[in-house]
Amino acid sequence: MEETLLRFRATANGFLSRYEPLVLLVAPLFALLVARAVHSLLLHVHRQGLKPVLVGFFMSSVKLIPGVNKYIEAEKMKVVEKLQSGTKSKRDSWRSELPSVGLGRGVVEKLEDSKRNDVVWQGKCSGTVYIGGNESEGHFSLVNEAYSMFSHTNPLHQDVFQSVARFEGEVVAMTAALFGSKDKSSGGQICGNMTSGGTESILLAVKTSRDYMRMKKGITRPEMIIAESAHSAYDKAAQYFNIIVRRVPVDEEYKADVRKTKRCINKNTIMIVGSAPGFPHGVIDPIEALGALASSYDICFHVDLCLGGFVLPFARKLGYPIPPFDFSVKGVTSISADVHKYGLGPKGTSVVLYRNHEIRKNQFVAVTEWTGGLYVSPTIAGSRPGGLIAGAWAAMMSLGEEGYLDNTKQIMEVSKRIQKGIQDIPELHIIGKPDMTVIAFGSNVVDIFEVNDIMSSKGWHLNALQKPNSIHICVTLQHVPAADNFLQDLKESVDTVKANPGPISGGLAPIYGAAGKMPDRGLVQDLLVEFMDGSC
Description:
- By secondary structure, the protein is of the alpha/beta class.
- 49% of the residues lie in helices and 11% in strands.
- Strand 5, helix 13 (312-317) and strand 6 (334-338) form a beta-alpha-beta unit.
- Helix 7 packs antiparallel against helix 15 and helix 16 (448-457) packs antiparallel against helix 18 (509-517).
- It is globular, with a radius of gyration of 28 Å.
């Protein structure tokens, strides 16, 4: 053995003696740099996918050609200005400093004048306003009154505003009861907090899952798996919390594909997600199958009930064929549900729930070394508006189970009527099989985005979708008296586009169409960022 080592040593020294010492010193360092570069490239491909990386590299190379980058930037700004559609000129008249003398009560007149300039939204918007009737009476008035009574409160100061702390606890408990907290299968520990909306609820669920899985499994390079139809809040969470997103295509019914999701699970997977229903097409993902998958791999599973939370439990009681979606499903670790949608609470109210306290503790932030004292906070915001919590509590208590059942009956019936009306328009087809109150539709005959532009000119505000190109309406109580008008306007819009195809003046169809076909998604992202930067 010793002779073999000596021979190997002599051979190696003889081979290396042909090279300069400096080369022998630099070569390992160079190899290390190359290995690091290759590793970074592979990691980038792993995160973004091969095609986006190749397209991005190609576009970056093209921009090096003299004049090309300048041309692209100029064209990009044209698109941004088109998207802003005159809002920039309106901003020029906005106040940029305090009035020298305060307006006192006169400011109320200013508010009323500004409000009168808002567009007509009653019965014309997809989602947006979920409470029915007039904003100055009925449930609107009740919620506003509740908010006004507690507008000065802040649950950060629980010792002072004990009523608001109780309201939050009761809103969370009542919401949890809708999702199986009273069933033995839930484990009897369902807990949670109120948040500012569905996005914050999802952000907290993702952050909590990340920290919980780090504690439980030691995962330090977290990944989560989402369907293409999952809400963009998951992408926001991934950017905020440094999590890799593995995005899987939906199946032929536009549901999360369980088989493809399973393929993506690896040692770094912290969570998978399901929607009930998904925002784009109103389709409920296979929650039971996803729950079984999460349970078998011992990872977290979040169910997005932001849209369906205050509809599905009541639709099921009304006899609609609603598949399991809540904590009764094994494997579900967290749920988000918006009170400010079909819960008919004030804007800025949502709930995030967890199966047990062990999981939820990872949501909190505790600070022990601050000179301002010991600090602990349950959600992203420190100070929170107690008026919104009171408004949510008032909304739920005033409606009760009977009120929610009646509301659900109305919106489910009008949703089915609108769906049938769309199906009766030969040029249109429904995307997927809507389970609830979101109806997406497209066309193989006319440009659906041109149809959307015509509908916009008639005062409608619908949502443009992609993959495939389509639009949807999220039906609320506002649409109960407006369904026939919607269908009539939609039929007329389709007929107009069919008779006179092509973009209308001021329409956004060309931009939406081009964005959907653009291979460089980085450029599309730049357009969105530029648009937002000039809009707020």
